[in-house]
Amino acid sequence: MIERSCLVFESRELGEGETMIPKTMRAVVLTGHGGPEKLQFRDDVPVPDVGPGQVLVRVHAAGVNNTDINTRVGWYSSDVISATADVAGTVDVGGWDGALQFPRIQGGDLCGTIVAVGDGVSWSAGTRVTSQINIPRPTEDNKVSFIALGSEIDGAFAQYCLLEATEIFDVSISPLSDVEVAAMPCAYGTAWNLLMRSGVTFGDRVLVTGASGGVGLAAVQLAVYLGAVVTGQASSTKADVVRKMGASDVISRGETPHIELYDAVIDVVGGQLWPDIIRAIKPGGNYAVSGAIAGPIVKADLREIYLRDITLHGCSFSPRNVFAKFVDLLNLGTIRPLISRVYSLDSIGRAQEDFMSKTLPGKLVLIP
User: Fold this and answer.
1) Among the listed residues 299, 347, 352, the one whose alpha carbon sits nearest the alpha carbon of residue 85
2) Cβ atoms 251, 277 nearer than 8 A
């Protein structure tokens, strides 16, 4: 289903490495932390200038993710202790890495085509590419340093996006559509990193919380690809979708999982169920987390962690080589995302409203 307003797209012709690039573009601009009113759809945003080592990408599709909403409402602030949907009031410092610079173009998921390159760049115009949302930029003092596309730098909720040439990936040979590719970097890249960090391998029993959402459903698919036996936790209305993606079993949201059954737990929910999630892990098992939509503040009994040798993994940083292995799967078409709905860019408010309703499984995608 495509919900599209009457938009006039400028003509664009690629050929021999050349393209017509306008001076301004359509984009959704975040003006500050708060509600949907902080999102402004504009058609006069300057197209970024391409500097040395950079590429300008014409965005064909951009995925909608929970992190977009978390960033908008300022959920990443340590002052916020509630679930995303319950954030009230205004925060000053609510980005991934502290205070954001506004206005900011959000959007951490993209599929697009290179239309211009800067000096010293070997990429060719016309190449279809994507990028990580959490882009590794290690420093001498911090080997796990990263910036987030759509947070520290402008992202994909626009017709054009400026990226470093060393931080993109070629997806020209992938059989997936632009919409499918754009649905994958954040959700599937995050899920792949969670599984790699927790060492999931053939025959492991894996519990995935929030299994019908973007990251959760991706984790189900990818864990099954790795040969794991997967239990998904999701609402009863979405249990069939989770099973179709490969889960052997589905338990309801809020249901207490079996004690010491799983080799690994992939968690994007957090909240009050967290102590039961830890107890569900076998001695010597792994817990990997990359979200806390039900609430970031949890109650823990450290004895249940250290006496049973449970390893905890906080997973935001993903090395380029880890994401590159996922891109190999994307290019082979091994994994395909579930796309529930597609919207025009100026319908971002409706898209985020639908996302927060949790009635649609899988991914929602915007078309700039």
Assistant:
1) 352
2) no
- Give yes or no for residue 281 having a pLDDT over 80: yes
Q: Which residues pair with 29 in a beta bridge?
A: 40, 105
Contacts for 122 with CB less than 8 Å, ≥ 6 apart: 165
Please report, in angstroms and rounded to a whole number, the separation of the first and last CA atoms in the chain. Answer: 16
Q: For residue 349, what pLDDT band results from cuts at 50, 70 and 90?
A: very high
DSSP E strands, 178-326: 205-208, 229-234, 249-252, 262-267, 281-289, 311-314
| Residue type at 202 in one-letter notation | F
> Residues 118-124: contacts with CB within 8 Å, 24+ apart?
118/50, 118/51, 118/52, 118/53, 118/54, 118/55, 118/165, 119/52, 119/53, 120/52, 120/53, 120/165, 121/52, 121/53, 121/54, 121/55, 121/165, 122/165, 123/55, 123/165, 123/168, 124/17
Query: What pLDDT sits at residue 98?
Result: 67
For all residues of the chain together, what is the average pLDDT?
91
* 367, containing H or E segment: strand 363-367
Place of tokens 């709905």: 341
Rounded Cα distance, 79 and 251, in Å: 32
pLDDT digits 0-9 by tens, 240-260: 999 999 999 999 998 999 999
The tens digit of pLDDT for each residue in 49-88 reads 999 999 999 999 999 999 999 999 888 888 888 777 777 6
Q: How far, in Å, CA of 46 to CA of 27, rounded?
A: 9
Domains delineated in the chain: 2-184+337-367 (3.90.180.10), 187-314 (3.40.50.720)
CA–CA distance, 203 with 22 (Å, rounded to integer): 53
Q: Which two tokens stand for residue 26?
A: 């359509």
Other C-beta atoms within 10 Å of 139: how many?
Answer: 8
pLDDT at residue 305 greater than cutoff 80: yes
Please state the pTM of the whole predicted model: 0.91
Q: What six digits make up the tokens of 87? A: 């954030």
